[in-house]
Amino acid sequence: MTSASALPTQLTQRLQSIDALRGLVILFMLLDHVRETFFLHRQVSDPMTIDATDPSLFASRTLAHLCAPVFVLLTGLSAWLYGEKYQGRSDVSAFLFKRGLFLVVLEFTLVNFAWTFQLPPSVVYMQVIWAIGVSMIALSLLVWLPRPALLALGALIIAGHNLLDGLHFGVESALHVPWAILHDRGWLEVSENLRLRTSYPVLPWVGVIALGYGLGPWFARGSDAGERQHRLLMAGVIALLGFMVLRIYNGYGEAPWSGYPTVTQTLMSFFNITKYPPSLLFLALTLGCGLLMLRAFERAGLARWISTLAVFGAAPMFFYLLHLYVLKLLYLACVALFGLNHGDYFGFDGIGAVWLAALLLAAALYLPVRGFARLKARRRDIRWLKYF
């Protein structure tokens, strides 16, 4: 029987594991954005071209694949926990709609400006913040479904959306715009001076956020930690086994892999998966790993490294905006000081420098992020802080 004195510790571990996992994928995101800023002369395709991609670059990019699926899954899970706290689906529905709309506006303004430094913009990239925002708006409606129906719908979207890969609509069709937003990555011509890029088609992400919300009762107050960890283990293993079986037989929804002269390249081909939009195999691999890490983080208890990761995960939007502007200003400073050393770009000569820069930036951003997280926790009367 669990003692009363043990309950606060279990509750802390339960919630801190979520922040810690969010913090870890935020650091993976930082690594990928350093790559996109200072290694842009070595761009990668989706999926990557094995013959033209160094193993170190392939590994760095593949590691970053964890970011969006885990973050969207945890967004759904956090929405359920928010509803548990405020005792009502109407509260969580309203919060999801308002926050989702806030994120969509944020993508078109502060986030896009951080990437382009263009005002007014000629191009707007509808990326991960947009996808999360639209998914939250969709979830604000889906929360009214019974939990089994919500889980079934999420699984159906994740497993079935690749059946729609061959469906395309030309610019003359009334379905061109909505289908580009939902599933068919492309360009939308708004005017002669403005183009939109649907970088993150949102349909699969709606499935992921619904699945995350459906997992919420596993993390309810008073839930058994051992049972939760067993469920996370089973779900993670099943997802990874599903990935392995489908991938070995070059199953549906993904570009086929093939053997190469070296074992390293063959493994690269096997794990070379499609992100835009995320294939079933992409989501099976990344979500399976995410669920197993969530279990491992909770089992690690209140270790110092878990607490450190949780700091980054406690203020994710603040970190996101801060690191984008810091990276852009650093890039402009390097161009001013050293010029363009790789054609049209300033960049690092090797992927090792990308990793080093990411580590240094993580250390530099830790204190401001921790300060904001503490402010957010202390000043609950400032309502807008919860959006960050």
Question: Short description, anyone?
Answer:
With 388 residues, this protein is mainly alpha-helical. 65% of the residues lie in helices and 3% in strands. A hairpin with a 2-residue loop joins strand 2 and strand 3 (194-197).
Mean residue pLDDT: 92
Q: How would a crystallographer describe the biggest sheet?
A: 3 strands, mixed
- How far apart, in Å, are the first and last alpha carbons? 38 Å
What is the total number of structural domains? 1
* Portion in beta strands: under 5%
Helix content: 55-70%
Treating each run of at least 4 consecutive H or I residues as one helix, how many helices?
A: 14
Major sheet strand order: 1-3-2
What is the number of beta strands?
Answer: 3
**Overall spatial form:** globular
SS-derived structural category: mainly alpha
Assembly status: single chain
Task: List SSEs in N-to-C order.
Answer: HHHHEHHHEEHHHHHHH
Radius of gyration (Å): 21 Å
Low-confidence segments, ≥5 residues, pLDDT <50?
Answer: 1-11
